[in-house]
Amino acid sequence: MVPFKFLKYLQPTRYFSLKRKNGATAFPLLEHLPKEVLDQLDSAETYKSPQAQAYDKSWQALHLGHIFYEESYADFEKIPVVDEYRFIRRYFSKAWVYYVLLLRLISFKNPFKEISGFLSSKTNRLQLSSHTPVISNAEVEGFASKLVEQSPFVSVIIPTLNRYEYLKDVLKDLEKQNYSNFEVIVVDQSVPFQKEFYEQFDLQIHANYQEEKALWLARNNAIKQSKSNYLLLFDDDSRVEPDWIQNHLKTLDFFKADISSGVSISKQGDKIPADYRHFRIADQLDTGNVMIKRDVFKSIGLFDRQFEKQRMGDGEFGLRTFLNGYLSVSNPIAKRLHLKVNSGGLRDMGSWDAFRTKNLWSPRPIPSVLYYFRRYYGASAARLAILRITPISIMPYRFKKNNALKVIGALVVIITLPIIVFQIVKSWNLSGKKLAQGPLIEALDE
User: Fold this and answer.
1) Which of 10, 34, 171, 230 qualifies as a cystine partner to 154, CB 3.0-4.6 A?
2) Mean pLDDT for the chain?
3) SS3 breakdown of the chain: % helix, strand, coil, rounded to 5?
4) What is the DSSP string of 7-35?
5) Antiparallel, parallel or unpaired: β 205-209 and 182-188
6) What is the pLDDT of residue 415?
7) Is the pLDDT assigned to residue 318 strictly greater than 80?
């Protein structure tokens, strides 16, 4: 449920497109926004209708990090087509505006109305990344957290598979943490298992060998083993700063949140992506860097094992928390360097990329992705997501930000269309079997 309907073409499977179970959306009511927030928003005067202007400001407030609000829109009124196009032009590149127009025309919308709206919608693009966020990072960093002072016990959970070389640096970083009241639960699936490896670290480590190579089973078992109320999920190929644990706790306390969703960078010195440089309601959950209160798992269950050896298990859990009304905050001060090494881990257990296949006859996307899309967003949104993502996924992952190669990817799609259709049909059928079986979500007992 989004204020601008054209978002269904560009973000068909985003958390914010759904209502929570209590009927609320993620978008704050404009009349309830405090003056200090309103003052930071663009006037949005480009729109034809006052309602579109209000919706745009609500969109801005959400994305600039307005978190403390009680009232949200429950429903949205229909707005003029020209305002739908204006919204897309303000927040997306020109290529996506043409993409939406094409989809509207081939889906038998009134061509005169669509083309007229498209041509009349010329407006300047708004870069929200250049606007001041509602809450500065420094404000949270300087926050005197009573929770940190109370020093609650934290469980750091790390599944690992054949990565001792990288796990050594992970555990060294944990030794350097300025917050000391934590344990480390490692679920080790390596062959051979090296129990003596863990003896070299000055940490409270519980290293358990798991014979079955299964990521979500490993995380679920570690959560069940932990007695802590604060569970910090981590990856075995990551590096963090000494204030990492403290910054997760501080964020939970500052926002009275249930989840602190840390951000990731792939190269030392890389900038955090613009959308994740400030605090805001999280629209994703990364199980390589997230602190979750135990009560969340007790309420909605553990990770769905339908995603075993596939993808999107963390995305599904994140959406479950959103739908059930839990507050997950995107946390830019609890960042990690994710090395994404070429051996071990998920790469030894299956595909690590949702839309890039291992060979021509593999399903595209990974069946668990369509299981997730279809289960929560419906078949229509799943098809739009396939159409939206497939062309840009043809090129290798390292080129995903190269616009010229995205165009080449679209041309490759046209040339190889029969093969791609085969891949998608195969994935659709396999995801259908998962849907028929249903979720494999175990409850967390008291």
Assistant:
1) 230
2) 92
3) 45, 10, 40
4) HHHH-TT-GGGS--TTS--SSBPGGGS-H
5) parallel
6) 81
7) yes
How many other C-beta atoms can be found within 10 angstroms of the C-beta atom of residue 407? 14
Q: Residue 268: which H helix or E strand, with range?
A: none
- Cα separation, 341 vs 234, in Å, equals 15
For residue 255, give the H/E element and its range: helix 244-255
pLDDT at 341: 78
- The answer to whether residues 216 and 308 touch, using CB atoms and an 8 Å cutoff, is yes
Closest CA to 210 of 193, 188, 231, 232: 188
pLDDT digits (tens, 9 = 90+) for 89-120: 999 999 999 999 999 999 999 999 999 999 99
CA angle 263, 135, 182 (to 5 degrees): 45
Assigned token pair, 13: 């499977």
Predicted pLDDT of residue 70? 81
More confident residue, 274 or 89: 89
First-to-final CA distance of the chain = 35
Give the separation between CA 228 and CA 205, rounded to whole angstroms: 14
Residue with tokens 């960078």: 265
**DSSP H helix total and E strand total for the chain:** 17, 9
Given a contact cutoff of 8 angstroms between Cβ atoms, the answer to whether 157 and 226 are in contact is: yes
CA angle, 277 then 280 then 282, to 5°? 100
Separation of alpha carbons 168 and 203, rounded Å: 12
For residue 68, the one-letter residue type is: F
* Cross-strand pairs, 182: 154
Token pair of 332, please?
Answer: 């830019």
Give the residue-averaged pLDDT of 28-48. Answer: 92
Q: What is the DSSP string of 83-106?
A: HHHHHHHHHS-HHHHHHHHHHHHH
Q: How many CA atoms lie within 13 A of 167 on its CB side?
A: 26
- Structure confidence by residue, pLDDT tens digits, 171-220: 999 999 999 999 999 999 999 999 999 999 999 999 999 999 999 999 99
- DSSP code of 273? P
* Total residue length of the chain: 446
